[in-house]
TrEMBL record:
Residues 6-207 form the Conserved oligomeric Golgi complex subunit 4 C-terminal domain. It comes from the Eukaryota. Transmembrane segments: none annotated. One of its GO terms (cellular component) is Golgi transport complex. It holds the Pfam family COG4_C. InterPro entries: COG4 (IPR048682), COG4_C (IPR048684). GO terms for biological process: Golgi organization; retrograde vesicle-mediated transport, Golgi to endoplasmic reticulum. This is Conserved oligomeric Golgi complex subunit 4 C-terminal domain-containing protein.
Amino acid sequence: MKKTLESDCSELLSQSFGGEQARLKLESCLSDMDAVSSKFRDLLQEGLNELTSSAVKPQVKPCINLFLSVSHNIEEEEFNDYEANDPWVQQFILNLEQQMVEFKAGLSPVIYDSLTSLMTSLVALELEKVVLKSTFSRLGGLQFDKELRSLIAYLTTVTTWTIRDKFARLSQMATILNLERVTEILDYWGPNSGPLTWCLTPAEVRQVLAL
């Protein structure tokens, strides 16, 4: 809007409407508009943060914590059973969907999209916490990788924001948990990392290897 006003007013001033004094008044008004707009953006962000903390997190966190009740230290029989009867992620996605439908009905598209971005950040953070409290077998790591891919695929459909960066750490944890031998990390680390940029520190990589 500001750019449109600048363009329209500049055109008028170029046609000698108002002169120098009018130009200075215009610049002052546009500057004030910038300040007010910035304050509104800050208030909006503060409100979204509060909404995420007070309304989204209390609903999302318990559902993520259910991940801890599902064993990922599994063998082939349990892995096959999980494939036929998903133990966690599909119900979690359903819960997220139900919650976001309620918000979507009462928010403008722009604000709703900003809220979904904050929600995805919250989901990634809380899921990382429970993963680091879990124990994984090789097949359990594969199960987690499938769960993570399903979750990312769903969240990609509900927001225009890029979310893969938010889940980069979790994706790298899944990669580590899928290694058959600890020494295979050397195929991905250091000079062998290729285009991969590690988001996990060496200490965090060792922590995940020990799960």
